[in-house]
Amino acid sequence: MDGDGLFTIGALARRTGLTVKTIRFYSDTGIVPSTNRSPAGYRLYDITALARLDLVRTLRDLGLELAVIRQVLDRQISVPEVAAAHADALEVQIRTLRLRRAVLREVAKRGSTPKEMDLMHKLAKLSDDDRRRLVNDFIDDTFGGLEANPDFVALMRSAMPELPDDPEPEQVEAWVELAELTQDPAFRASVRRMAEHQANERAQGDTTGLHQELTEAVRDRVGDALAAGIAPASAESVPVVRDLTARYARAFNRADDGELREWLLTRLETANDPRAERYWHLLAVINAWPLPPSLAPVFAWLIAALRAGTSSSPTTA
Fold first, then answer.
1. Residues 194, 276: contact at Cβ < 8 Å?
2. How many CB atoms sit inside 10 A of residue 218's CB?
3. For residues 124 and 120, what is the distance between their CA atoms, to the nearest angstrom?
4. What are phi and psi of 204, to 5 degrees?
């Protein structure tokens, strides 16, 4: 400090613990300008500059960018406003770190290859918005440009992966598998065929919705048949199939005849992709929803029964 109470840049460096190079940079950029210059042309700083430099160092330690710091120093924004914004940013970082921790634990448990580990790391870094965007892009690609069942498309868009702040390993694993599944060209092609089938049905006048009651009826009737050991090609399956085709005929306002059975068989076979059920199972794991029971055996039985033609003499509903 000189006789006028001013600090040289070296003295300022010793007081703050910052390097002369750093202080000179702050001075050159106008963040902490010098107060005066000595007769020899050296920069001099007063006590206000020292306090300003201390604040800069504190804000930098908190991770703020220089542009934000300049706004604080120029009083364009207040310190409380900066603190609130930074706290929000730290919250996002904390969530990301928790997710990365869960990924590392999963890698350690699975003994993942470098390729798998790289993929898991990339997926773990995605934000909630990024995860929704990935699934929405999948839906756009498979249903885009088609007049498919709007209730089903709305259901797809309402079911987004929402990882908790501190996910369990199985949730991380399910998220990685779901992301891989949505990028699988074969699965996308399969879902596209489902969407095209729905669009064709809509073009022919089908305005029905999700048919939850029909699904429950198939689950209950075929579930009982499976429990009783009834084979789909056996005579005992005939009343089960007749009951269900009659229900479909009423739901879709169609005649319960051979044409209905061919239509129903095509409908069920088009939707009978085990990866589609896996998609919903993974979403349930990620979002900690109750796991739905598998309907794959139920619809496989009904498809086999329809193929066998055990209901070749239908009754009119």
1. yes
2. 21
3. 6
4. -90, 10
Q: What is the distance of C-alpha 155 from the center of its chain?
A: 15
110 pLDDT band, cuts 50/70/90, is low
CA 86 to chain centre: 25
Q: Is 229 exposed, middle or buried (0-12, 13-18, 19+ CB in 10 A)?
A: exposed
Rounded CA-CA distance 26/281 in Å is 55
pLDDT tens digit string along 198-247? 999 999 998 888 899 999 999 999 999 999 999 999 999 999 999 999 99
Question: Which of the 8 DSSP states describes residue 19?
Answer: -
pTM of full prediction above 0.70: no
254 contacts: CB under 8 Å, gap ≥ 6: 248, 260, 263
Backbone angles phi, psi at 43, to 5 degrees: -70, 145
CB contact set of 93 (below 8 Å; sequence gap of 6+): none
Query: Does residue 88 contact residue 63 with C-beta atoms inside 8 Å?
Result: no
- As a whole number of angstroms, the distance between CA 269 and CA 146 comes to 20
Angle at 215 between CA 210 and CA 219, to 5 degrees: 165
Query: Whose structure tokens read 């596209």?
Result: 192
C-alpha 41/C-alpha 9 separation (Å) is 12
Nearest to 248, CA basis, from 281, 271, 218: 218
Structure tokens at 38: 């000595």
Contact 225, 301 (CB under 8 A): yes
CA 263, 266, 267: angle at the middle one, nearest 5?
A: 85
Please say if the pLDDT value at position 62 is more than 90: no
**CA angle 63–65–66, rounded 5-degree value:** 130
